[in-house]
Write a structure and sequence with these properties.
It contains four helices and nine strands. The protein has 185 residues and is α/β, with parallel strands linked by helices. A hairpin with a 3-residue loop joins strand 3 and strand 4. The protein starts with 5 loop residues before the first helix and ends with a strand.
Length: 185
């Protein structure tokens, strides 16, 4: 007869059932709102690129840790390096949020997202800002750019405001409290 430590078995069961799978369920990718925050994604899900009904995509860290005085750090940054050019075919996409990733370049096809109104590229410190200013400036309906801890030199901001005078840029300077975050202790 074996004696099993129930508390250890319970911990193992909870731990293994809570682990995020790198594979994302197909049905999750076919919804209007696709929330993959907290998933360990290193490659943009191809099935998501075929979802014509998709209106909102959230990829990145789900929770952030707050350090004094007002510094936020993602708890689970993702290793996503690229977004495929095919994202420009998601004609109904209204909000795209890719936070705390290893992106260095945004695809040129972002300018084809004719219904995109909000772009959140917060906590993407490796992003080459010079390369994406032109793409963002060409997104027809973009009215909100959220970019906490994603540095854009003031000269590039000026270029954005010239091409999109109605554009609202939300960052740690304009709004120190990053809304929509889950802050953990």
């Amino acid at each position: 007869m074996k004696i099993i430590n129930i508390s250890m078995l319970l911990w193992i069961t909870i731990f293994t059932s809570c682990k995020q799978s790198p594979e994302v369920a197909e049905e999750k990718l076919s919804q209007e709102v696709v929330d993959l925050r907290g998933q360990s994604i290193s490659k943009f899900p191809e099935a998501l690129l075929k979802n014509d009904a998709c209106r909102q995509i959230f990829i990145g860290s789900k929770t952030f840790k707050k350090y004094p005085p007002n510094t936020l750090v993602p708890n689970e940054p993702i290793k996503l390096l690229t977004i495929p050019e095919e994202i420009g075919k998601l004609n109904n996409l209204r909000k795209l949020s890719i936070t705390a990733s290893d992106l260095s370049v945004l695809p040129k096809s972002l300018s084809q997202l004719r219904n995109l109104k909000t772009l959140d590229i917060s906590f993407n410190s490796k992003l080459d800002t010079a390369s994406f200013v032109a793409h963002i400036g060409n997104i027809p309906r973009l009215d909100t750019l959220i970019m906490y801890r994603t540095f854009i030199p003031f000269t590039y901001r000026e270029k954005l405001w010239v091409s999109k005078p109605h554009l609202i840029i939300i960052d740690e300077f304009s709004n120190p409290d990053y809304t929509g975050l889950s802050i953990s202790n």
